[in-house]
Write a structure and sequence with these properties.
By secondary structure, the chain is mainly beta. It is about 5% helix and about 65% strand. The protein has one helix and eleven strands.
Length: about 250
C-alpha cells in the first residue's frame, strides 16, 4: 500500500511541474503559526486531536487564513492511527488575486496515518479525505457577501521523514522534510483538480517530554479556482506539537 502511494506521490509531483508551464504566477511571502495536539485519553487507544493555525500574508503583516480542526483519533497496533473530525477555515483577501470578501469553509475530514522506522529515520505516511463546504459570493451583487456554499471533495497524501542530528553533535535537534499533494474531486471543481502541493523543511527541538517546536520553510504551490493562476507561497513556519496525555496523572 505504501509503495503504491509513494509512486503516486512522485507522479503527482512530475505532473504538477509540467502543468505549471505557461500559467500565470502569483508570488507571496507568508508566515504560519500553528499548534498540533494529539492527546491520548487515560492511557488507552482513543485520543483527542486539535490543531489551530494562524496564517498571515506579507510575512505576518496582513491576515490570510484562520483554521481550527478538532477531532478524535484511535491508535491501532503497529504504528497505524485512524482519525476523523471537523474543520473551520476563513480566508481573507490576500495576494494579487484576492477574494472579494472573507470566505468561510466548513469541512469534515478522515485520515489514516502510518508511522515506521527505517534505521535512524522516522517515516510517516498520511492519507486524508475531506468533504468541504466552501462559502461563495454572488458576483452580481455589490457589496459582495457570502450567500451560498458549494460542495467539493479533496484527497491528500503526505510523506514525511525525521532525522535526529546526534551524529552532528546536536543531541536535541532533528531535521524534518515532507511533501503533501492535494487533489480536488467533484462536479463543482472548475479547472483545478490539482489543488496544491506543500514542500516543507524544518529544524525541530523537543520541549519537555510531550512537546516539540519546529522552525521551518514551506513552498506552497496552489492552483486557484478556474485553473489559470498558480500561487507560489513562500512561507515561514513556526509550529508547536504536543502529545500530552489527558486523564492520567503525570509525574
Amino acid at each position: 500500500m505504501c509503495s503504491s502511494a509513494i509512486r503516486l506521490f512522485w507522479i503527482a509531483l512530475f505532473w504538477m511541474g509540467w502543468n505549471l508551464q505557461g500559467e500565470q504566477q502569483d508570488h507571496n511571502q507568508n508566515a504560519w503559526f500553528s499548534y498540533f495536539g494529539d492527546h491520548p485519553l487515560s492511557g488507552g487507544p482513543w485520543g483527542l486531536h486539535f490543531d489551530a493555525q494562524l496564517r498571515r500574508s506579507d510575512l505576518g503583516a496582513e491576515p490570510m487564513q484562520v483554521l481550527v480542526q478538532p477531532g478524535l483519533n484511535y491508535q491501532c497496533a503497529s504504528g497505524w492511527q485512524l482519525a476523523a473530525g471537523y474543520g473551520f477555515m476563513e480566508t481573507s483577501a490576500y495576494g494579487h488575486h484576492p477574494v472579494p470578501v472573507a470566505l468561510p469553509e466548513h469541512r469534515l475530514w478522515q485520515q489514516v496515518t502510518r508511522t515506521s522506522k527505517l534505521g535512524s529515520l522516522s517515516l510517516q505516511h498520511r492519507f486524508r479525505v475531506e468533504q468541504r463546504f466552501l462559502g461563495q459570493t454572488n458576483q452580481g451583487i455589490q457589496p459582495a457577501k457570502v450567500d451560498s456554499y458549494r460542495y467539493e471533495n479533496r484527497l491528500s497524501y503526505r510523506l514525511a521523514t525525521t532525522l535526529p542530528l546526534k551524529a552532528l553533535g546536536c543531541d536535541k535537534l532533528y531535521f524534518k522534510i515532507s511533501d503533501e499533494v492535494f487533489v480536488n474531486l467533484g462536479e463543482q471543481v472548475l479547472g483545478n483538480h490539482f489543488d496544491q502541493n506543500r514542500a516543507y523543511v524544518a529544524l525541530g527541538r523537543p520541549i519537555g517530554k510531550h512537546g516539540k517546536l519546529e522552525l521551518g520553510f514551506m513552498e506552497q504551490t496552489l492552483q486557484m479556482r478556474g485553473g489559470n493562476v498558480f500561487q507560489n507561497n513562500h512561507t515561514l513556519m513556526i509550529s508547536f506539537f504536543s502529545d500530552w496525555p489527558f486523564g492520567s496523572r503525570q509525574k
